[in-house]
Amino acid sequence: AKATGSNNVCFYDISMDQAARARSALAMDMRHGLMHGEFELYFQRQNDTQSGKVVGFEVLLRWTHPMRGMVSPVDFIPIAERTGFIMELGDWVLRQACLEAVQWRNPLCIAVNVAPKQLANPAFPQRVRDILTETGLPAERLELEITESGIIADQQHALNIIRQLKSFGVKIAMDDYGTGYSSLSTLQLFPFDKIKIDRAFIDNVAENRQSAAIVRSTLILAQSLDIPVLAEGVENADHLKFLQDEGCAQVQGYLYGRPAPLSQLQDVVNGQPAD
Ligand code: C2E
Ligand code: CA
Ligand code: CA
Ligand code: CA
């Protein structure tokens, strides 16, 4: 975009503008959708590896767009993050999840995903506290899942926020372990209550020696730091067997259940607990 560049510059600006407009159109759809009940929470079981019992649920957001149908969070969460709408959306998810969980007969835990922007907000701990007070959910039943991208930008700030959250009883899980830097120092510096191994490593854990080695060494490391590990993406009996043998505390994946609306989980959340 130099000598003959005025046109190029112009094109470049237009295409950037279009991309930005496409994002803000979806962002506007999201804002509209949130007001009109297009968003819904799905819940996916987290099970104790040895007993198989349900110990909690991860909360996963679903959006049914009036024209596009079901839009994956993989597609709309990044846009919500870029536009800042994640602050409002994330707040809604947290509040809605607490409102639901407090009504269950069985006091199971809920794990809610927190985007980097939410975590960076200095007002976030107080916001969580207010939601717990408003909804009446005991803090001990709430776990917040954070990713490394949410803590590497400003470690001291993130640590300060995490300490505040923990001071009133909320638990913190490190999500997608193994996909980021996942350095030893991160695990030592941050007081995580749980490590979630990313499903990329579980996928081929039975056949691939490297994946198996990564999962094993994560389990040994976590054990030495006294942090329980949950394996994501547990899809079959081979995965489960491996994780049982290696002493992984919890599992989550299609083997025990896909994410589902609460209407399909009534026996779990309100039924008589099995023995
Ligand atoms: P994540 O936090 O890593 O969530 C786990 C994803 O793995 C979910 O995808 C879940 O449906 C999927 N999954 C669970 N078990 C299995 C399995 O056995 N096999 C396979 N192949 N996949 C499995 P989902 O629901 O599409 O969500 C994708 C991502 O969107 C999440 O990844 C998370 O990063 C984000 N997300 C979803 N809901 C929220 C939310 O409320 N807030 C924020 N900030 N992010 C969210
Ligand atoms: Ca998660
Ligand atoms: Ca994850
Ligand atoms: Ca993930």
UniProtKB/TrEMBL annotation:
UniProt domain EAL: residue ranges: 23-273
Protein name as annotated: Bifunctional diguanylate cyclase/phosphodiesterase
Organism: Rhizobium wuzhouense
Positions spanned in the full protein: 403 to 677 of 694
